[in-house]
Design a protein that fits this description.
By secondary structure, this protein is α/β, with parallel strands linked by helices. It is built from 10 helices and 10 strands. It has a single domain, classed as NagB/RpiA/CoA transferase-like (Rossmann fold, 3-Layer(aba) Sandwich).
């Protein structure tokens, strides 16, 4: 088991709570927890047992065990991962976005409380900006960015491991760094839609759980 020095734990708590304050100033519900186990506990407390839950392409949510825990509890979970036809996948993406809870992560969160995401299909950023009910984020401290420019760079860097996971040889995978696929004419580009949540969108309910661990890409 990886041991974390108490000074690192304390530093993460200070940084995490500072981000929470920034998020709250922008209208987001927010809290800090130290571990992925605590994050899972809070996810299960926040989401009602009878709620439908949409889980888009997020490694973080799956890594903390939320997908399995929700299914085991009896929640109806919509997701587009797994073996299915293109039509089934498209329908699953729509159901994710119209579920009672949209459970996801982020590519970056800035110190001043802006949440940044990049998407190839658009379903994930659409669900974050518009949907049926609660948008619940689980974000590890590895997603922290100093400012907006740094956050955009961090979001694009997450595309490389994501493309590798999906066996897509994007230009950035071949080069080992972002090459601005849109200008390079790469048809496999996964950086087609960028959402910057400057503030909580009017009419939406948001809650952000900042976790003092490295989670996801």
């Amino acid at each position: 088991m990886k041991m974390v020095h108490e000074n690192v734990i304390r530093a993460n708590e200070i940084i995490g709570n500072d981000i929470v304050k920034a998020l709250k100033r922008r209208g987001f519900g927010a809290e800090y927890v130290a571990t992925s186990e605590e994050a899972l506990k809070r996810v299960m407390e926040i989401i009602p047992s009878d709620a439908t839950v949409g889980i888009p392409g997020t490694i973080t949510v799956r890594d903390i065990g939320a997908l399995d825990a929700l299914k085991a509890r009896g929640n109806t979970v919509f997701q587009h991962w797994g073996k299915m036809s293109n039509e089934e996948r498209r329908a699953a993406r729509f159901r994710e976005n119209t579920a009672d809870v949209f459970l996801t992560s982020a590519n970056a969160v800035t110190r001043d409380g802006r949440i940044i995401n990049i998407d190839g299909t658009g379903n994930r950023v659409a669900g974050m900006a518009w949907g049926n009910g609660l948008v619940l984020f689980v974000i590890g401290l590895n997603k922290l960015a100093f400012d907006l420019e740094d956050g955009l760079k961090r979001a694009k860097s997450a595309t490389i491991p994501n493309a590798i996971r999906q066996n897509v040889e994007t230009a950035c995978v071949k080069a080992g760094h972002c090459v601005n696929c849109s200008t390079a004419g790469d048809e496999d580009s996964m950086c087609r839609a960028i959402l910057i949540l400057e503030e909580a969108v009017k009419g939406r309910d948001y809650h952000v759980i900042i976790v003092g661990e490295d989670l996801g890409y």
